[in-house]
Amino acid sequence: PMFKTIGLYVLAASMLSSVYGCALLVAGAAGGAGTAAWLSGKLTQEFNSSYENTVIAVRKTLELESLPIKKESETSTVTQFKSEEANGKDIWIDVHMIDEDSSKVEIRVGGIDPDKEASSMLLDRIKQNL
To answer: Residue 111 phi/psi, 5° resolution?
Structure first.
């Protein structure tokens, strides 16, 4: 019974931290360019850069890193890139328009078990190209 109770407390605490973590992320994002955060297996960061400039920076980054664009789809507010590392890991990069002067980038490298280091490196390269 004691282990069951501890397990319930751990579960409740993790659920609360998930809920409050999302609320804090949203609150932080409202203030402008935030820091990178992991959300649903994606590395996410907002930039004080227009949607168009951010899309250009992502294309340039993929080209400079010799990562082929396997698929690119675009709407008026989201551009999605699919690429692949030399080792075969899939790369997904989404650029979202927030407003005229800001955008959000979401990166995921790898499938079930995302490669956080590779995602961080790509995000750093995108920042350099902005």
So the answer is: -90, -100
Number of H helices, E strands in the chain: 3, 6
Q: Which two tokens stand for residue 89?
A: 């890991």
Which stretches in the chain have pLDDT values below 50? 2-32
Is 65 in a helix, a strand, or coil? Answer: coil
Tell me if the pTM is above 0.90: no
Instruction: Give the pLDDT of residue 112.
Output: 80
Residue 126: predicted pLDDT = 96
Sheet holding 42-47, edge to edge: 37-39, 42-47, 102-109, 90-99, 78-84, 69-74
Are β-strands 42-47 and 102-109 bridged in parallel, bridged antiparallel, or unpaired?
Answer: antiparallel
